[in-house]
């Protein structure tokens, strides 16, 4: 099955800094999603982005499907951005496969 | 639309006991998924329902696990004869007709002592 790899595994930022999270996937995808898991465990869907670029406030995501990677950009980071960011890929079936996540801590 | 609801939020049980979790998906969603997440890992797929039909089960779902979705509405996940290795967060998600964007519940954190 498809392999989903995320980097970096851990990231510490000073409040106000920008960052880029990367997701590589081993096969062609039908869809690609980015999630944020807050410290209480709730998974929030940030982007549904099988290809192209989308922006939502300080967050934006780009997926280059032909090169099998996606990037999540966080600008002007805030302490509330802390948590774990997952990308998840689907190749057209019922399963959506998650990466191991990037653990982000934003210092005040 | 109140989102995906899961109950209970936490469950502590002794090894060998049976436990059952409930998931109420977003009302207009016909696709429902169960995932399991252990500490430091991403969610792992367990099973998938389209309406009331269970269409796919992961090899992670041993014979002690059973899931149902009667009438295509809420779903239950039962674990029989729990083992310490079953300790995890059990997450439910739903998606709409096109089976695209996943919406997750808050999960049930299971601790087996």
Order of helices and strands of chain A: EEEEEEEEEEE
Of all chain pairs, the largest interface belongs to: A-B, 22 and 24 residues
Proportion in β-strands of chain B: over 45%
Q: What's the tally of helices of chain B?
A: 0
Quaternary organisation of the protein chains: heterodimer
Q: Taking Cα atoms only, what radius of gyration of chain B do you get, to the nearest Å?
A: 13 Å
Computed structural class of chain A: mainly beta
Proportion of residues in β-strands of chain A: over 45%
Structure explained in plain terms:
The complex is a heterodimer of chains A (108) and B (113). By secondary structure, chain A is an all-beta fold. Chain A has no helices and 11 strands. In chain A, strands 2, 4, 5, 9, 10 and 11 form a 6-stranded mixed sheet that branches. Chain A has a 5-stranded antiparallel sheet with strand order 1-3-8-7-6, with no helix packed on it. Helix content of chain B is 0%, strand content 50%. The mean pLDDT of chain B is 93. Chain B is globular. With 113 residues, chain B is mainly β. The A-B interface holds A 4, 31, 33, 35, 40-45, 48, 86, 88, 93-101 and B 33, 35, 40-45, 48, 55-56, 58, 89, 91, 93, 99-104, 106-107, 109.
